[in-house]
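Exercise 3.2. Students should predict the tertiary structure of the chain below and write it as structure tokens, then compare their answer with the key that follows.

Predict this chain's 3D structure.
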Amino acid sequence: MTTSKANPKVDAFIANAKKWQEELKRLRAVLLESELTEEFKWSQPCYTFQGKNVIVISGMKECCAFAFFKGALLKDVHGVLTKPGQHSQSTRWLKFTSMREIAEMRSVLKAYVREAIEVEKAGLKVKLKKTSDLKFPEELQIMLDELPEFRTAFEALTPGRQRAYIYHFSAAKQSKTRESRVRKFMPHILKGKGLLEE
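Answer key:
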């Protein structure tokens, strides 16, 4: 078994972490025992296999996390993986709040890391839902049909931005609320901005 080489940027990241230093060191140790390459991307430790992102570890306010980019493809025989967000299609993670939890899960983590590497070796991909597969709320569809400039601007958005808007508009239970949300964000969309962009 080859051992991954420690990346100095990750040393600095852990040394400067305000919380979860020991937990991050422990999670990192599991990954350094694998054949993954330790890199530093998006301001966090990222572990890759032949250039493909496999896992990131991160410290947050309430926990630290061990996230698999293609976690949806793992068998999860222990039933421990969860989605980071309601609409997450591919990523699955485990969250930790103590050294004890990590120690108890060490063998599971190692097995899941091996499986994640096998997923990459096999070239497997998560079949993501396309924005076109999503059901557009009627209120959005009406405005897209009636306002060609609005339709052009919406279609010019990235698929991720389109999905965020569709989810946001669809989440309202009443038609009146859905319509007011579409109207509220119309100027944003016309400027090519995403839901959370100023």
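Discussion points: The mean pLDDT is 90. The longest strand covers residues 52-59.
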